[in-house]
Amino acid sequence: MTTQTAVRQAVTVSASRERAFEVFTREFNRWWPRSHKIGPAALAEAVIEGREGGRWYERDVDGSECEWGRVLVWEPPARLVLAWQISGEWAYDADLHTEVEVSFVAEAPERTRVELEHRGLDAFGEKMDDMRRSFDSPGGWTGILKDFAAAV
Amino acid sequence: MQTYQQRALQALGDPTRREIFERLTAGPLAVGELAGELPISRPAVSQHLKVLKEVGLVFDRPSGTRRVYQVDPAAVAALREYFDAFWSNALASFRAAAEEPEQPSGPRRET
After folding, report:
1. How far is A108 from chain B (nearest CA, A)?
2. Could you tell me which CATH number the domain at B2-88 has?
3. Which residues in chain B come in under a pLDDT of 70?
4. Domain boundaries in chain B?
5. Domains contained in chain A, CATH given
6. CA A62 to CA A65: how far, in whole Å?
7. pTM of the shown model
8. What is the C-alpha to C-alpha distance for residues A101 and A83, in angstroms, rounded to an integer?
9. Looking at chain B from residue 77 to 106, which residues have their Cβ under 8 Å from any Cβ of chain A?
């Protein structure tokens, strides 16, 4: 069941494990796609607080803050587990619980494999249709991917 | 394909149907077994199974003297597809950020 309701992704980056962990967490705001947010105002900053039980949230240009979930496991520079509690309508839902686990594996001093698992996806069943529609919209993920492919 | 996926996702919008679907992900079950585990009648279970079957999330087959329902693995794959795309893109962005020099004014690290 777990394998059926989880997705896994991996990417290898030319950076140390410590650096990769730092970019993923402390510099989360640098790379998180700006289009993926909750509040009505434009995204000012996306934040992962660096401690177990820390917040994972967005701050918008109007000063408002929107929760995304919690830091469940904080083990720099090896592992990070986040509770993803964003519903299909891109709203915080305390009753929704899915988990994102990120592992940082050193392959060389300056090469790190970053593995990500997002599990418990069956909890999204109710709203997945809406989410899919937003991702498939013009300017959604497909366009973003092309931009990154061109930039790398 | 898109239409098919959307219909499957909409079918899971009903909490009871989602409950039935989740139980079936653990293994095949007959209508009676599902009705025994859920606070709804056997005809209601049958009706939900019919919807799930119509959108291709589950299928049924005879097993001895009864008929069991099970999850179609291909349909589950479709549900995961979009999160695969989501994270694939986010990680591509992460990689680009991780490989940039730490200091904007610092020397560029070529790979």
Report:
1. 13
2. 1.10.10.10
3. 1-10, 74-79, 82, 103-111
4. 2-88
5. 6-151 (3.30.530.20)
6. 9
7. 0.61
8. 9
9. 79-80, 82-99, 102
